[in-house]
Amino acid sequence: MNENTASAQKVAIVTGGASGLGYAIAEKFVNSGIRTIVIGRNEEKLNAAKEAFGALCSTISFDLSNLQGIPELVESIAKEYGQIDILVNNAGINMKKPFTEVTDDEFQRIILTNVNAVFALSREVVKVMLPRKKGAIVNISSMASQYGIPKVIAYTASKSAIEGMTRAMAVDLSPEGIRVNCVAPGFIATDMSAKALNNDPERKNKVLSRTPMGHLGEPADVAEAVHYFASDAAKYVTGTVLTVDGGNSIGF
């Protein structure tokens, strides 16, 4: 109850919050009494999320690759809710393709959504956070930034950038009371990953055999880590990358 009362006034933005890991993060926030604004592209999924999460959740349909529209988007959120306490940069796109077949346009498209949009959205949200001298930003990275995974060169480049940006943002913003951290999920059982791994038994076996815990994580495991970084429990933690991977990144 205390946590709910303490965080009742908090306002969070979760990008890509209508499905997968973002959905679990938004659900955790709402259940903790945080007013949560979910930004996504799929109207149908957004409506379903809003219905599931109830009164504490609002949804906005917006394509974050539209960088020019981001300042206005953030301005309208700040105007409506008066403040932004938490930003979770979860939205991202992936593409699996052999290295030599990736075109410049395809590479650029991944970087645009996974890096440029994260920067632009964070910059505008920080402008809202600065006058109050407080806020928490949580970026979502990936195992792809921890070691080499075949056929995902653009995604890997984008997530490596996110981890570097997390540290640079933390150094710039922590003196102003804004903490910046990053969660790097391992292999988590979402609809998307389940489909990919079940269709490729060899890959699934490889994933599990090098994960000391021997099983996939759940979206809620990632949501708990994000909630920790966003909460006052992490008030002296900034610039860190937390792997939530069952030991996969240190497994052999």
Question: What would your notes on this structure say?
Answer:
The chain has 252 residues and is α/β, with parallel strands linked by helices. The protein has one domain (2-250): 3-Layer(aba) Sandwich (Rossmann fold). It has helices at residues 2-7, 20-31, 43-53, 70-81, 104-129, 153-173, 191-198, 201-209, 219-230; strands at 11-15, 35-40, 57-61, 86-89, 135-140, 178-185, 241-244. Strands 3-2-1-4-5-6-7 form a seven-stranded parallel sheet, with helices on both faces. Helix 2 crosses helix 9 and helix 5 (104-129) runs parallel beside helix 6 (153-173). Keywords: Oxidoreductase. GO terms for molecular function: oxidoreductase activity. Belongs to the short-chain dehydrogenases/reductases (SDR) family. This is NAD(P)-dependent dehydrogenase, short-chain alcohol dehydrogenase family.
Order of helices and strands: HEHEHEHEHEHEHHHE
What share of residues is helical? 40-55%
Q: Kindly provide the radius of gyration, computed on alpha-carbon positions and rounded to a whole number of angstroms.
A: 18 Å
Report the sheet-strand fraction: 15-25%
Q: What's the shape? A: globular
Query: What's the average pLDDT?
Result: 94
Low-confidence stretches: 1-7
- Count all strands and give the number: 7
**Total number of distinct structural domains:** 1
Sheet/helix structural class: alpha/beta
State the end-to-end CA separation: 42 Å
In the CATH hierarchy, what is the superfamily?
NAD(P)-binding Rossmann-like Domain
Strands side by side in the biggest sheet? 3-2-1-4-5-6-7
Q: The biggest beta sheet, please?
A: 7 strands, parallel
- What fold name stands as the CATH topology? Rossmann fold
Keywords: Oxidoreductase
InterPro entries: NAD(P)-bd_dom_sf, Sc_DH/Rdtase_CS, SDR_fam
Pfam families: adh_short_C2
Family: Belongs to the short-chain dehydrogenases/reductases (SDR) family.
